[in-house]
Please model this.
Amino acid sequence: MATRTATTQWTGGLQDGAGRVTLDSSGTGTFDVSFPRRIADEAEGSTSPEELLAAAHASCYAMALSGGIANAGGTPQAASVRADVTVRPDRDNGGLLISKIVLTVRAKVDGLTAEQFAEVAEETKKACPVSKALASVPEIELDATLET
Model:
């Protein structure tokens, strides 16, 4: 079993504070985080839990899709997966809520029809470990297109 670790060091309050998240397991980066940029339209210069979640979901989905295509008898050539994670105020419980995730997938695949690909893409949305972890998100939308 693999365990991956990230650490955030935070200083200050919610509105005036800031932090740095470090990807400890891989050592591939340290990124600034701040609450005001988390909820702003522009997040330049700082990442957020939602952006990191989007990265996790997109990469997990891409890997799972590749395996699903092979299991269905196809040969994956290339895939582009984009995850858009929407956060909004939680009207019921206060704080914030991840209300929607949109996965946009464009893939080149040999050996599957568009219908077969669509079925694999939908199954992957359910089977990807990050999708399973995000099962409480009210809406996870998939837009998958097989490119020729």
User: Anything to note?
Assistant: The chain has a mean pLDDT of 93. The CA atoms of residues 55 and 83 lie 7 Å apart. The chain has four helices and six strands.
